[in-house]
């Protein structure tokens, strides 16, 4: 069991407003002073459909954030346009991609030489997550939790980083079998390794399964980060041996 004893504790985020030409974005930002992975890593987390009350204060969004915080990532949670203090109006996933891209630009402007940039999303946020990572080749990884049926219309030939799809076995909103098909659609891309996890007994909201969700997130991202460090070290050693 990898769930940290503090995984349910309240994390101290700073309330910020990200200024941009399309209007300000309401956000919360958690920043570490140091990272055990030597260089700064960041993640952008995207919330469920605003039409159904989704916001950056969603329970699953917080669980995702806690897992990344325990892995020393800086965490940025945003409200899509028209939610909370974010300016603008709901745009059915189109303008929301621009919100996510602007948030990533804010992270890139804030930090030099980022080691890792990840994007994660739940429900509607999972769909926006996928559209976002396919627009930015500098994103290193993604987590898409219970992405909606519209995800089948993504351009699966567009470059995509390694990542993971997660769904509850008894999700009443999106069929687990549909989500399990998405890694196969992405597998045609060179060097794309996409994982899939179905959490047994869980519904769409991961009721009574939030700790298991946390564990899956934590383990996957930690293993991926350690693998990247190992690969990077091997490349450096190989280069040094040729000098």
TrEMBL record:
Q: Which organism is it from?
A: Candidatus Cytomitobacter primus
Gene3D superfamilies with a match to the protein in the record: alpha/beta hydrolase
- Which Gene Ontology molecular-function terms are recorded? hydrolase activity
Q: Which SUPFAM superfamilies does this UniProt record tie to the protein?
A: alpha/beta-Hydrolases
Keyword vocabulary terms for this entry: Hydrolase
> Quick check: keyword Cytoplasm in the entry?
no
Kindly provide the name given to this protein in its UniProt entry: Alpha/beta hydrolase
| Phylogenetic placement of the source organism | Bacteria, Pseudomonadati, Pseudomonadota, Alphaproteobacteria, Holosporales
The residues covered by the Serine aminopeptidase S33 domain are 51-150
């Amino acid at each position: 069991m990898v769930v940290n004893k503090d995984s349910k504790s309240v994390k101290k985020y700073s309330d910020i407003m990200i200024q941009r030409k399309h209007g300000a974005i309401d956000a919360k930002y958690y920043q570490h002073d140091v990272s055990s992975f030597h260089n700064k890593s960041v993640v952008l987390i995207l919330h469920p459909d605003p039409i159904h009350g989704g916001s950056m204060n969603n329970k699953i969004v917080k669980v995702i954030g806690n897992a990344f915080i325990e892995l020393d990532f800086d965490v940025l949670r945003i409200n899509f346009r028209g939610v909370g203090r974010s300016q603008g109006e709901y745009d059915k996933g189109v303008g929301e991609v621009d919100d996510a891209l602007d948030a990533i630009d804010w992270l890139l402007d804030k930090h030099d030489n980022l080691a890792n940039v990840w994007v994660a999303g739940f429900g509607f946020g999972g769909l926006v997550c996928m559209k976002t990572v396919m627009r930015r080749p500098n994103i290193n990884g993604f987590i898409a939790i219970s992405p909606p049926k519209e995800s089948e219309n993504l351009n699966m030939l567009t470059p995509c980083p390694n990542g993971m799809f997660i769904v509850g076995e008894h999700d009443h909103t999106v069929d687990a079998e549909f989500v399990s098909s998405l890694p196969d659609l992405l597998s045609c891309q060179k060097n794309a390794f996409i994982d899939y996890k179905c959490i047994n007994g869980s519904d769409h909201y991961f009721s009574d399964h939030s700790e298991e969700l946390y564990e899956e997130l934590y383990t996957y991202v930690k293993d991926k980060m350690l693998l990247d460090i190992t690969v990077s070290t091997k490349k450096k050693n190989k280069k040094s041996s040729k000098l």
